[in-house]
Design a protein that fits this description.
- The protein contains 6 helices and 6 strands.
- It is α/β, with parallel strands linked by helices.
- It has one domain: Isochorismatase-like (Rossmann fold).
- The radius of gyration is 15 Å and the shape is globular.
- The chain starts with 9 loop residues before the first strand and ends with a helix.
Length: 187
């Protein structure tokens, strides 16, 4: 399913485009992901719509079979990439789990602004993005996933999320499609 609508009050949520994450090996070149996410952020700002920039500074404390990719975060690891052109009116969220809604106040912030839809982009497709999209869906937001503005560390996991999970959580679209819809409905 492709994106069909952008609600009047839609927010962009960009997940984990930070120095430490973008330095990791990903299934797709991360430069393209950052470029597309930046284009989305510019379009949302141009239309005076909320932009939420999310970074991660810890992992959930539970026991897992797979060891965390990073145990300690060196200086600058959590800093957002400069290409996002962070603006004073952007809302920033630091998460400590995969999903951006857990214990961050993000739901309350978006609902206070009257947001009914979120567009999600960033890294990693099968963890931070999928968890955030699931939480957004469960919290009653319409969800759109910018499929060319995301990647994963594992290509199979990325494809699984896009083809099997995301159609059950919302709609998908490319950066070009999302920006075109924003521009045509807000002209």
């Amino acid at each position: 399913m492709a994106i069909t609508a952008v609600d009047p009050k839609t927010a962009l949520v960009i997940i984990d485009l930070q120095n430490g994450i973008v330095a990791m090996l990903t299934a797709h070149p991360v430069g393209g992901v950052v470029k597309h996410a930046s284009l989305l952020a510019d379009a949302f700002r141009r239309h005076d719509l909320p932009v939420v920039l999310v970074n991660v500074s810890a992992g959930a404390p539970g026991r897992t079979e797979e060891a965390p990719r990073v145990r300690e975060f060196p200086a600058g690891w959590t800093d957002l990439v400069p290409e996002l052109n962070q603006q004073p009116r952007d809302h920033t969220v630091t998460k400590r789990t995969w999903g951006a809604f857990t214990n961050t106040g993000l739901e309350e912030h978006l609902k206070k602004l009257g947001v009914t839809q979120v567009v999600v982009a960033g890294v990693a497709t099968s963890s931070g993005i999928e968890s955030t999209a699931r939480q957004a869906h469960e919290n009653g937001f319409n969800v759109t996933l910018a499929v060319d503005a995301m990647t994963d560390m594992n290509l199979d996991a990325h494809i699984n999320s896009i083809t099997r999970v995301f159609p059950r959580l919302g709609e998908t679209g490319t950066t070009k499609e999302i920006v075109a819809l924003l521009d045509s409905t807000r002209a």
